[in-house]
Amino acid sequence: QPYRLIFTLLRETGMRAGEVLDLRWGDVLLDAGREALRVREAKNGTERTVILGPTATPRSVRGLRAARRAQGRSTSADHEVVFLSNRGTRVSYDALHYQWARLCHAAGLVDEAGAPRYTPHQLRHTRGSELIAQGQRVEIVQRVLGHRDIRSTLGYTELRDAQVRAALEGGH
């Protein structure tokens, strides 16, 4: 099942769920040192490149290489969808959310009603916030997340109380 790799890509790259589910093998570049994904139908109507690498996205790179081997696609057809359901069709949003809910339930990450406390989209927010916390420039985070308007990215720069306290106590 492709869900572990889908969730890994969402977490490591900050891609939108639709961008990951729409990937075709022709969009996956796995040459050593040039690993990347081409996102053709991003939310904002542009094409962008999602940079992968053994340091930044190690599980994603390994997972994509393994998926290609498992599907017997050393020279897979460019138009073929990367993530297939057990019926051989593109993984749907509904299936993705169902698997996410199962994962959250198994991990105890559900509310009193049994609904997941988190969504797959929050993996994207986690990546953006993480990059800002690492000191990456807002323009870099904007490109990573595929935001057309930098104001969308600026929401990730809001300081948390703990960050302010640490800076003040550390003299920075």
How would you portray this structure in words?
The chain has helices at residues 3-13, 17-21, 58-70, 93-106, 121-133, 138-145, 150-154, 161-170, and strands at 28-29, 36-39, 48-51. It is mainly alpha-helical. It has a single domain, classed as hpI Integrase, Chain A (Orthogonal Bundle), CATH 1.10.443. It has a three-stranded antiparallel β-sheet with strand order 1-2-3, with no helix packed on it. The termini are far apart.
Give a nutshell description of this structure:
The protein is mainly alpha-helical and 172 residues long. It has helices at residues 3-13, 17-21, 58-70, 93-106, 121-133, 138-145, 150-154, 161-170, and strands spanning 28-29, 36-39, 48-51. The protein has one domain: Intergrase catalytic core (hpI Integrase, Chain A).
Q: What is the 3D form?
A: globular
| Structural category | mainly alpha
How do the SSEs run, as a string of H and E?
HHEEEHHHHHH
Assign the CATH architecture.
Answer: Orthogonal Bundle
What is the element layout, followed by pairings?
Layout: H1 3-13, H2 17-21, E1 28-29, E2 36-39, E3 48-51, H3 58-70, H4 93-106, H5 121-133, H6 138-145, H7 150-154, H8 161-170
Antiparallel strand pairs: 1-2, 2-3
Helix pairs in contact: 1-3, 1-5, 5-6
